[in-house]
Structure formats: C-alpha cells, structure tokens
C-alpha cells in the first residue's frame, strides 16, 4: 500500500520559515520524481517545486529564492524548506510522487495546511 504522509505545516508569521516533510512508503522511492503542490481556497492547485530522481529541481517563479526542495532516498522522504514566507503562500501543501514506465504511476498525500498570518 502506497502512502505519502506530509508533516510540518502550521501557522507562521510573515517572514518566517517552515520545513515540510513527506515520508513515502510502498514505492521504490529513488526512481520517483517528487513534487510539492499547493492549493489555496478558490484557486487552482499549482506545482510549487519538483525534484527528479536525478535531483534536478524546478520551482514556481513566485517561490524561487525562498523555497528549497530536497530529498533523502535513504529515508524515503522529500522536504520543502520555506523561507521568507508571505501571506500569499497560505495554502494546503500536498506531496506528489510520479513515475512513468510502461504505465504512469501517480500518488498523492493528503496535504498539510500552511497559514502565513500575523
């Protein structure tokens, strides 16, 4: 059974920092591309950051220079370090794992709430 379990969300003041974690199980983690998505109320879900199986990273323009995605294959965990947080970063952040072989395999976590407010 595949599980992606996020943790680390919470309430933080503008300018603060949070680190999200996503622990995976039930997949061959090292071959999967891992991503963090977010969805704010009334808005579409958007890809915040992705790290490939070869450690290549991409970021949403609005978070470049503030967020860092990383992965630890030994721990089967992906992280999102978020610095200089802004109120507009408030959203539910979800972890995604995807791999395409003969078929496409996509898995999602349930998400963790991040609220940036004074």
Question: How would you summarize this macromolecular structure in one to three sentences?
Answer:
The chain is mostly beta strands and 118 residues long. Helices cover 0% and strands 54% of the residues.
Task: Describe this protein's structure.
There is one protein chain. By secondary structure, this protein is an all-beta fold. The protein contains no helices and eleven strands. It has strands at residues 3-7, 10-12, 18-25, 33-39, 46-51, 57-59, 67-72, 77-82, 91-100, 104-108, 112-116. Strands 2, 4, 5, 6, 9, 10 and 11 form a seven-stranded mixed sheet that branches. It has a four-stranded antiparallel sheet with strand order 1-3-8-7, with no helix packed on it. A hairpin with a 6-residue loop joins strand 4 and strand 5 (46-51). It is globular and about 45 Å long. The termini are far apart. The model has no long low-confidence stretch (mean pLDDT 97).
Helix content: under 10%
Q: How many individual helices? A: 0
Whole-angstrom Rg: 14 Å
Spans of at least 5 consecutive residues with low confidence: none
Query: Major sheet: size, sense and barrel closure?
Result: 7 strands, mixed
- Cα separation of the termini: 40 Å
Number of beta strands: 11
Proportion in β-strands: over 45%
Order of helices and strands: EEEEEEEEEEE
Round the mean pLDDT to the nearest integer and report it: 97
Q: How would the global form be characterised?
A: globular
